[in-house]
């Protein structure tokens, strides 16, 4: 899920160590576009889930250096580094634990219970499976992580509140640091 195509997966093999050395984790990588104008989109964050503009710039410089040296993409491309955002993709098993209680959409690579798409509240993980509480269902559904081709948080009031609280904490801690430096 972190990469869709074989080319994406090769780029992840090249760039994961670069990101980790710089203190980041790649959440998702996509190489998009045709032969003319391609775009390498990287969503990343620190291990504690942060990613600000300075972080994006730092990771972009580290990635660009390796990409220039290794030249794994034929032709020209544009590099985009960003945070996953509030209604982020869920691409790693740990994401489903981190966002337990929040609503998500999952798409599977096969039919399960007569459908490929599910929407419900995340209920953590259990032995490589994602636990999902579906509306109107009494039992928690267990979906093998390997079956999921796409998963994303649903933008809800609760999720927006979490994002606002995290921003407020960041601003308060940044203010405390800069105030101490004065």
Reconstruct the topology from this structure.
Layout (H helix, E strand, L loop, with lengths): L5 H17 L2 E8 L5 E8 L7 H18 L6 E6 L10 H6 L4 E10 L2 E12 L2 E6 L6 E4 L3 E6 L3 H25 L1
Parallel strand pairs: 2-3
Antiparallel strand pairs: 1-2, 4-5, 4-8, 5-6, 6-7
Helix pairs in contact: 1-2
- Briefly note the structural class of the backbone: alpha+beta
- Could you tell me the number of beta strands? 8
**Morphology call:** globular
**Rounded Rg:** 18 Å
Strand content: 25-35%
Number of DSSP helical runs:
4
Distance between the termini: 45 Å
Strand order of the largest sheet: 7-6-5-4-8
Helix content: 25-40%
**In sequence order, what are the helices and strands, one letter per element?**
HEEHEHEEEEEH
Which segments are poorly predicted (pLDDT under 50) over 5 or more consecutive residues?
none
Mean pLDDT: 91
Biggest β-sheet: count, sense, barrel? 5 strands, antiparallel
Structural notes for this entry:
The protein has four helices and eight strands. It is an alpha+beta fold and 182 residues long. Strands 7-6-5-4-8 form a five-stranded antiparallel sheet. Strands 1-2-3 form a three-stranded mixed sheet. Helix 1 (6-22) crosses helix 2 (53-70). The chain is globular. It starts with 5 loop residues before the first helix and ends with a helix.
Record keyword descriptors for this entry:
globular; alpha+beta; three-stranded mixed sheet; 182 residues; five-stranded antiparallel sheet
């Amino acid at each position: 899920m972190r990469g869709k195509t074989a080319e994406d997966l090769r780029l992840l093999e090249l760039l994961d160590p670069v990101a980790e050395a710089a203190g980041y984790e790649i959440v998702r990588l996509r190489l998009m576009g045709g032969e003319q104008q391609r775009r390498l989109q990287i969503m990343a964050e620190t291990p504690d889930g942060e990613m600000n503009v300075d972080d994006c710039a730092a990771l972009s410089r580290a990635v660009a250096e390796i990409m220039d040296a290794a030249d794994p993409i034929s032709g020209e491309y544009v590099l985009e580094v960003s945070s996953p955002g509030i209604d982020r993709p869920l691409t790693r098993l740990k994401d489903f634990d981190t966002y337990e209680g929040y609503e998500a959409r999952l798409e599977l690579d096969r039919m399960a219970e007569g459908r490929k798409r599910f929407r419900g509240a995340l209920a953590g993980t259990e032995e490589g499976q994602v636990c999902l509480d579906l509306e109107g269902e009494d039992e928690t559904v267990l979906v093998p992580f390997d079956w999921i081709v796409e998963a994303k948080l649903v933008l809800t009031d609760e999720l927006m509140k979490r994002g606002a609280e995290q921003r407020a904490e960041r601003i308060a801690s940044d203010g405390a640091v800069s105030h101490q430096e004065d």
